[in-house]
Design a protein that fits this description.
234 residues, mainly alpha, 10 helices
Length: 234
Amino acid sequence: MSLLPASVRQSPLLIRTVPFVVFILLTSLQGSFGEAGRYWIYLAKTVVGAWLVWEMRGLVTEMKWKFSWEAIVVGVGVCVMWVAIDPYYPMQDAVLHKIGIGSEPKPAPAWNPFAQFGDGTALAWLFVVVRTLGPALVVPPLEEVFFRSTIYRYVVNPDFEKVDHRKFHWPAFIITSLIFASIHHQWLAGILCALAYQGLVLWKGRLSDAIAAHAITNFLLSLWVVWKGAWQFW
């Protein structure tokens, strides 16, 4: 028995957008309950996100995962790009402040479970695992269904299910990438990442490769974060 309302389950648009919106709303709460609280909210968000993916699985046909060598190449390439360009451009809050939108940026506390809960503690490792598996297994299907399959095709035609995944459309290509970048602190990497994933969808004619590439990128980035202590990427 599904906990999602029938109105959501029966609407091709809502079943692809509501799960992502719920996930983003939970993300917005992460800083509302203190420093330690954001870790627990992240855990709750990941559990809810996993449930939403489970609810979507039989209703969003394009969400099925399929690996290909192209997905592996794009996934690895995007991870390398994300890390490599990081020192060379200002982050989103700095850009918004420079153009007169938002207050002066303040350094955000790093997501470092070892600093928060103790080096090598079981609780710290729990949140390292959650922060690795969530972006690798939960985030890709939610984001790729919303951005690459729904927003992109909806810009082409509001009756988006009729739009083939191989359909190239310049406005949709740019608009989707900009919206995707807007929810990422590393906005430039977000734009390039979105262009790469959308290009993969256009090339292969299916969403599954982008989901796989996204999962590979996020998993490798998490390994880099833990290995190098590059907590700014979390």
